[in-house]
């Protein structure tokens, strides 16, 4: 850095301090103004302009909304301003789901078409940009940030700026003049039935009408006659059983959400709503049939059928050429000669070229000949999220022919290489598809294998270069997870020269009642490699506990980014792999529950956040966790030794652990005083 650049940095620092001082110590204000400054030119004039802006003293705004908060809104591009203000329709502290809010933005017309881009791509980009600017707060428990919230002060700002067009409350309380101006309504009321004020339907200009999910409300059929200009009609979980045929007159309707309602049919008049883009029928437990007119919805972009017992569908779904989100594609054995069939054939996938998110169900009903028509999924260049599933199992055992058929079907449903999120569930074959264990899925970030109960071996997925999240749940046939899981083959040490799970951050195992052994390298080969590293006499120098010598090829080859590891309901698992303590250098959170046979948790020298152990009846010792900060223990009656936790700051114990832990708690307290000069914080874990 030359003298001129150094002076520039000092000037900006001086101005930045003044701006921070104007934030009044409010962390939110500091975070949002930091993003504003980062998005501007780094010049004295630009930062001085922000410092001297009118936003700091705007009299039209409440005091708490002036300054940094309003500046952060003003700095948004026009299209993001609309999207931000729309979030005022969510109640305080409500969860905002990415897929829901982005669909509403699309339906409202906030998203501009860009050449070669789906509207949904652009909407998601806006969503993540608002998170990046700290205008929305990502939920840390969702790795893909698919859920977020809005800070109460930012919500107040959005409500204030959109107060004439957005209304949250009981619309029946609004006067006629106010109602004429309102464009968006979220119904929140103590009443049992939602009712609109009695004014001429032509005076209603409402574009979005939503009901609160917390209190199910009765829907009066007059609603469908009054909302003449509505674009977004979200009746999720409302007490509605019948949709009147007059819904076909809502010619501006783009989004109809009936998720969780008790409807038993949809009228054929729905086919007249040519503007309809999104039809969500998920969790409609009494809906068994789709109207024939469904395939007339030529602009439909999303059809949601997940967890709805649909067994009658119109043929030729391929006519819906803009469909990019299809949740719950039921496979059936019908043919093209019938108007209604019990499900769709796999060959109809050939016409759905825009698919972005796709969920196939009842795959055991497919036949392999269906998939010879084309490459099916492989050529879906937009496909990012895919779920492949079978029906809920019954008491009747699957035949050998059933197993062979389902394995063949899954093998033929090879996803495109650009897929990012894959979920396989209720698969009853004995062998998962081979494409899962190859480098074909190089873009996959999220992988879930759920209730694959007959698979005794996991595929080799350690080589997936972009995998960030892995969940294995309900793999009841697995007894051992060995080196093949990470891509290491017996007798081939060179195979581990590449990183295994190079980007994996979250690893979850759940409900694996027969899993006994977990290793990354076979013990015999590990010992041989260690001997080769030693002197001519085959000996090796002794190492401190927890730092045993590893083969030369094994230094930093495994799980370098792993942050969270969870093991739940794995009662037969005897031990953790030694390599976890030597390789997982970024491990922050370890949660172990219902691991009855696990006797020790030790030598995890990089674990730096918390360790939670619960319902581990056989656990006897926790030791050599030099960086762990927090320990939580519940229902571990045989835990007699907890030691070498040099940086432990907080200990939480369940009530039943209070007495049996007295000895090692006092030792930990004494260690804390000697090393850090303060007291260990010990509390009851409620």
UniProtKB/TrEMBL annotation:
Residues 224-510 form the Disease resistance R13L4/SHOC-2-like LRR domain. Pfam families: LRR_14, WHD_DRP. The keyword Repeat applies. The keyword Repeat applies. Signal peptide: none annotated. Keywords: Leucine-rich repeat, Plant defense, Repeat. Residues 89-158 form the Disease resistance protein winged helix domain. GO terms for biological process: defense response to bacterium; innate immune response-activating signaling pathway; plant-type hypersensitive response. One of its GO terms (molecular function) is ADP binding. This is Uncharacterized protein.
């Amino acid at each position: 850095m030359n003298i001129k650049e150094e002076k520039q940095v000092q000037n900006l620092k001086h101005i930045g301090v003044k701006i921070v001082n104007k934030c009044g110590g409010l962390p939110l204000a500091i975070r949002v103004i930091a993003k504003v400054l980062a998005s501007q030119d780094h010049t004295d004039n630009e930062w001085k302009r922000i410092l001297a802006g009118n936003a700091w003293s705007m009299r039209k705004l409440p005091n708490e909304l002036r300054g940094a908060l309003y500046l952060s809104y003003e700095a948004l591009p026009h299209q993001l301003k609309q999207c931000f203000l729309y979030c005022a329709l969510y109640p305080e502290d409500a969860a905002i789901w990415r897929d829901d809010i982005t669909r509403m933005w699309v339906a409202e017309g906030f998203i501009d078409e860009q050449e070669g881009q789906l509207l949904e791509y652009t909407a998601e980009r806006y969503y993540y940009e608002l998170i990046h600017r700290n205008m929305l707060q990502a939920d840390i428990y969702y790795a893909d940030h698919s859920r977020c919230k809005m800070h109460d002060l930012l919500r107040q700002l959005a409500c204030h700026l959109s107060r004439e067009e957005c209304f949250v409350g009981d619309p029946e309380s609004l006067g006629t003049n106010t109602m004429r101006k309102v464009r968006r309504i979220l119904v929140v009321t103590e009443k049992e039935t939602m009712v609109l004020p009695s004014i001429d339907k032509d005076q209603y200009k409402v574009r979005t009408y939503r009901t609160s999910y917390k209190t199910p409300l009765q829907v009066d059929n007059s609603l469908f006659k009054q909302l003449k200009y509505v674009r977004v009609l979200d009746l999720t979980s409302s007490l509605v059983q019948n949709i009147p045929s007059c819904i076909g007159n809502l010619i501006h309707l783009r989004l109809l959400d009936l998720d969780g309602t008790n409807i038993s049919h949809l009228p054929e008049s729905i086919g007249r709503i040519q503007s309809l883009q999104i039809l969500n029928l998920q969790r409609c437990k009494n809906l068994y049939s789709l109207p024939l007119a469904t395939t007339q919805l030529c602009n439909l972009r999303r059809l949601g059928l997940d967890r709805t017992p649909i067994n009658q569908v119109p043929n030729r779904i391929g006519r819906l050429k803009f469909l990019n989100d299809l949740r719950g594609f039921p496979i059936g054995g019908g043919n093209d000669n019938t108007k209604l069939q019990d499900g769709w054939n796999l060959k109809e996938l050939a016409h759905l070229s825009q698919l972005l998110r796709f969920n196939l169900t009842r795959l055991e009903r497919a036949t392999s000949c269906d998939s010879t028509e084309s490459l099916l999924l492989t050529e879906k260049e937009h496909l990012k999220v895919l779920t492949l599933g079978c029906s809920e199992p019954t008491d009747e055992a699957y035949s050998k022919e059933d197993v062979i058929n389902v394995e063949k079907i899954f093998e033929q449903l090879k996803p495109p290489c650009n897929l990012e999120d894959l979920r396989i569930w209720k698969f009853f074959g004995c062998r998962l598809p081979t494409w899962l264990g190859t480098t074909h899925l190089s873009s996959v970030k999220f992988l879930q294998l759920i209730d694959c109960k007959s698979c005794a071996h996991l595929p080799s997925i350690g080589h997936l270069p972009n995998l960030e999240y892995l969940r294995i749940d309900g793999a009841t046939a697995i007894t051992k997870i060995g080196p093949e899981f990470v891509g290491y083959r017996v007798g081939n040490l060179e195979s581990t020269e590449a990183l295994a799970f190079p980007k994996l951050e979250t690893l979850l195992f759940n409900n694996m009642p027969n899993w006994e052994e977990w290793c990354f390298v076979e013990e015999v080969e590990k010992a041989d490699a260690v001997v080769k590293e030693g002197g001519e006499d085959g000996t090796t120098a002794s190492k401190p506990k927890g730092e045993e010598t590893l083969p030369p090829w094994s230094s930093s080859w495994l799980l370098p980014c792993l942050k969270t590891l969870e093991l739940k309901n794995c009662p037969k698992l005897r031990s953790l792999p030694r390599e976890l303590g030597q390789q997982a250098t970024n491990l922050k959170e370890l949660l172990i529950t219902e691991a009855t046979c696990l006797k020790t948790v030790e030598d995890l020298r990089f674990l730096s956040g918390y360790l939670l152990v619960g319902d581990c009846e056989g656990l006897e010792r926790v030791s050599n966790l030099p960086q762990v900060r927090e320990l939580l223990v519940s229902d571990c009656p045989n835990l007699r030794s907890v030691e070498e936790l040099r940086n432990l700051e907080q200990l939480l114990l369940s009530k039943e652990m209070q007495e049996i832990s007295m000895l090692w708690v006092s030792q930990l307290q004494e260690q804390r005083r000697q090393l850090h000069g303060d007291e260990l914080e010990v509390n009851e874990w409620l």
